Fold:
Amino acid sequence: MKNKLSAQITLEAAIVVPIVMLLVVSSMYLSLYIHDIVAIKSFGYSAAIEYAEEDFEEFRKKVTAKLKNVPLFVMNIQAECYQEVGAYKVVITFNGISNIHWLNTIINSGDNFQTIQAERGICTEFMYAVEAVCDKLK
Structure:
């Protein structure tokens, strides 16, 4: 007697395994993309706040240097700094290493830039409010 096996398991595996693998790989790629977006924004804001009291040329050099060291997986970034009245503006443009336009459309509504504005000084009302809160906490 010969063992007869049906091809049902083979057919199911041929359909299900590629779909499951596609979902796993897509979710990994999505997590790397979200990591890069968060890292870009975090490094951009921290650099802008950290160097906001410097003169513009030093600000531009330091922010650009810090943003070149962002650990990214699926994106490349370019930073441009602008000087405005009482503030510096950092525009970070990010492009994917591969074709991530569809992912960018879903998550960022198609925008491939982040604008960060760092005030050069803190307004006195804000300083007094922080001082009042700190005194109240003591």
